[in-house]
Input
Amino acid sequence: METRDFIESGILESYVLGLTTDKEKEFVLERVLTDQDLTDYTLELEADIMSYFNQGSVPPPPEVREIIQLRTTRRDIQKKKHVYENKSSEQPPKKDEYLEIEVNDTHIKVHKWWRPAFIAVFILSKIFLIAALYFYFKAASQEQEIEKLRAPGIETTK
Amino acid sequence: MKELERTNNGTAAHPVATSKPLTSLEIYDRYSAMAYGIILQIIPQQHLAQEILVNVFASPQLQACNSYPFSFAACVIKLARSKAIDMKKRIMELDNSSATLPADDNDKSPQRIFDLAFRQGFTPDEVAQKLFISKSEVLKAFHDFFKSYRNS
Output
């Protein structure tokens, strides 16, 4: 197809507007990238299309920008975290990569699961303490009983 | 090819692949009004249009525009339209309705064909089928539409 016929066929407009199929897209892109006239025409066409749509432009409310800012920031943080995790799993950390810093803080941070674990250990320790005291006093009283029972027997044998 | 630049009637056409890729907010500041206008043409409900606008500019696909071989604006136009049409189709599925042409609609003008394809979301094949014309006539109508816009 000649360049002029290609232009007049309207396939370039279809491509720029995103109305082509994947196969057509590849075909158009290949032609445009190899033909300078088509490249120039595509650039002109895109400018026309942009100008056409700019006529109908409507400024969005400012809140939308804030939402986008929040979402993109969150995404960037996740991305950075992901990259960091990948890096740390791929390469062993070098000693030189760490910065030595002086910390005056006397507190430590522990995982939140330590709280119920500490509570459980505390409660169990109290239960065992009570049980130990109970059995201790019980054993002591039984020993006294045995001693009392033994005492008359010894006297009678004498 | 990645360094294509141009100016058209003073309208800045940004270089496609600059040394530093544009961030989502930079793109938003330049093209949000145009994209919002396009979305509103396809979905007139403002709350839905704003949701789509957020999806467009917070989408990772937007960063792919940094490697699009032509203008950034065209890439944004495509993305805004595609997101709006997707939403429109989903709404139609929920309503159990489908976009149909009026039975006596014989308007085959480039304006009408462009409207059906771009705003109503019909593919060129579907437009051709509905208007009883060939696909090449549909594509030619797109060319004629922008030619007449350029000459007006």
In short: DSSP finds six helices and no strands in chain A. The CA atoms of residues 110 and 145 of chain A lie 52 Å apart. Helices of chain A lie at 3-8, 11-16, 22-34, 36-55, 62-90, 114-157. Residues 116-153 of chain A form one domain.
